[in-house]
Structures are given as structure tokens and as C-alpha cells.
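Before a colleague's protein record goes any further, I have to sign it off. Would you go through it and say whether the fold makes sense for this chain? Take the sequence as given and treat only the C-alpha cells as open to question. The record follows directly below this note.
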Amino acid sequence: MEREISAGGVVVRPMAKGWELAAIEPRKEPSVATGSAKRWQKLLLALPKGLVDPGEKPEQTAVREVAEETGLTAALVAKLGDVKYVYVRSWGDQQRVFKIVSFYLFRYESGTIDQITDDMRIEVKRALWIPLAGAESKLAYKGEKDMVRRAQEYLQEHPEL
């Protein structure tokens, strides 16, 4: 079974009403069966992440992916953990892939959310800030929901942030 190693970030910023989280709405591919996207598809939110490039450390990948997919610069705070799963490629060879995604907690430094390149629009429909409280219920993927819970716990344990 092929393996993929990726990394991503949980980017947070303090606001008057509490912490906010940078999320992305991935661009969905048209349905293969119908040739068009579903009309009433539920809003799908995810965390910024991507494949680790050769010679790159996972935390470097996470910094790069956060910048590319959200338009933000953020400071690394801590590693939150790894998400491991198997998926079947929906394109090309239909091969099963074992994937590991390392997630890191970041604190927002600068940049404007959703200010990303036209090339990145192929992958990301938009990036947006959402309240951290309850964010896990808005994210689509179980492992990412867990990473948001870990980020919330970390922030409670480290009020100096």
C-alpha cells in the first residue's frame, strides 16, 4: 500500500469574543457520475494541509500550506498530533493509500484571510475565520475535529497565549 505524509495547521487568533480558527472550504470536484456538482451539498470545512515535499520537515510543510491555502502568516506553537487513515484514490489508479497528517497549532501573526493566489483557487474555494468554540462541529473530518479539540485544550492549559 502506498503511503502519503502530509502536514497542516490549526491557526488561531484571539478576538474580543474568544478565539477564532482559520478554516478552508476546499473546492469540490464535479461528480463523476453526473458530471456536475451536487446542488445542495453541505458546506464542507477543513483545516489547511498538504503533502510534505522532499527535503521538507512536516512543520515547514504546515507553515507553507497555511500560507498558501489561507493567505496567513502564523507562528508555530506546538505539535497537536497525527491523524492516520486509509483512503482510496478517486482519480487515476483507484489505489488504497495509507496517509499520516501531522497537525500543528499556530498563532496568527499577519495576512488577510482568503488572500491567496489564483493557482491555489483550484484547491481552495475560500478561507475564512470561524469561532474556535464549536469549530469541531463545523469541520468535515473526524481527525481534524480531534485536532481542534486538542487545540482548545492546549489554549486552556496555556492562558499566556
Notes: The chain has one domain: 2-30+43-157. Residues 30-40 have pLDDT under 50 and may be disordered. The chain has two helices and six strands.
